[in-house]
Every structure is written in C-alpha cells, then in structure tokens.
Amino acid sequence: MSSHQYEVAIFGEFFSQDLQAILNRITLHSESAHKMHAREIVFEPFDAQFQRDAGNDPVLLRARKELLDPESKWLLYSYLKPESVRVYPEATVRPWATCQVIGDALSFASALGYVRRSQIYKRGYVFRRGPLVIQMFQQEVVDPKTQKPIPAHADTLWEVEVKTAAPVRNTQETPLSQSVDAVLDVQLLMKGLLDLRRQDV
C-alpha cells in the first residue's frame, strides 16, 4: 500500500442552454449548494523548461482562494501524474498534496522556487454530496490592465469537476475503489444530461 494521498475525479462540460436542467438535477442529489468565485494561480518550478528538455514533467503548484468568503485562506496544492488508465479506466486518480497558507501564498510559492505561470478565475456553484464536492463553473479571463476578472461570455462553456472533497488514502478500511464508486454514482445520475468521464490532466 502506498502512503500517497489521492484525489479521485471525473470531468465534463456543457453549454449554457443546459445550465438550468443540470443545476436542478445536481441540486436534487446534493446535501448542500452555494455560489463560488475562486481565483487560481498556477506556478511552475523556475527550472521547468530545463526539466521538460530533460524529458521530465515538472510538478506544478496551484494556489486557490475563495473570493466570496472573507475568512478564506489560500490553499496550496499539487498533483502528481495520474495513475495508469489500465488500473483506473473510469476515473482520474492522482496523488494529491495540499496545505493551507496563512498570509501571502504567492510569496511562499516563490520562496519554494516557483514562478507564476498563469491565473484564472472560476465563477459558478459548489455542491456537497457525501465525500464528494461537485464544482460547476465558467472560467473568467483576467483584464491585463486591472488584473481583475472579466465576466465570462454567455457562450462560454461550463465545466464540471466531480471529485473527492479531501485527499484519500488507499487503505483496507478506505480502498480507493469506494471513492471511484462514489464519483461513478454521479456519472450515472447525470446520464443523458451530462457526460462525465476520466481525463488525464
């Protein structure tokens, strides 16, 4: 058994005209729902290009902050390469490390030897369903002059991420198959309305 903590996830996307129907079905099968507006910044190691040239995938660091909650702190997290599609054909299972940062996450990341690569804002909804969190959002681009988000165009695709709310360990008491089954339940619930599937991200 490995000591890694994992995230189990499936993904989908849809057009705005399906929003109400999808919102209704997810709300019906969730314990709670609230609006979300998050800022996410992706960092890469300062020698990322050197690592790529050497044939390695640099480990990216992500910082996320929920903007609608004034108490919200920066969350730093990082994913490693997803487990093989042969082992988990139906869901993305990837090692996941996370930590909460008090204060300035951006300075913290640069102190670790990371440089900012990109940032986006995500606006939409978050649902809780048992051990899962379901995020449904449109990406907003950043105005280069003001650094503020520009509201998404009405035609912007909606993205859906169904994933474990907290990192899970693969143990006899909590085998990863339980988390895979939980996300596949949502896949089944949304069938005919939204196609949710594994992706290598």
Automatic annotation (TrEMBL):
Superkingdom of origin organism: Eukaryota
GO MF: transcription coregulator activity
Entry's localization field: Nucleus
Pfam families: Med18
Protein keywords: Activator, Nucleus, Transcription, Transcription regulation
GO biological-process terms attached to the record: regulation of transcription by RNA polymerase II; termination of RNA polymerase II transcription
One CC-aspect GO term: mediator complex
Task performed by this protein: Component of the Mediator complex, a coactivator involved in the regulated transcription of nearly all RNA polymerase II-dependent genes. Mediator functions as a bridge to convey information from gene-specific regulatory proteins to the basal RNA polymerase II transcription machinery. Mediator is recruited to promoters by direct interactions with regulatory proteins and serves as a scaffold for the assembly of a functional preinitiation complex with RNA polymerase II and the general transcription factors.
Subunit structure: Component of the Mediator complex.
Protein name (record): Mediator of RNA polymerase II transcription subunit 18
Species whose genome carries this gene: Obba rivulosa
Name of the gene: MED18
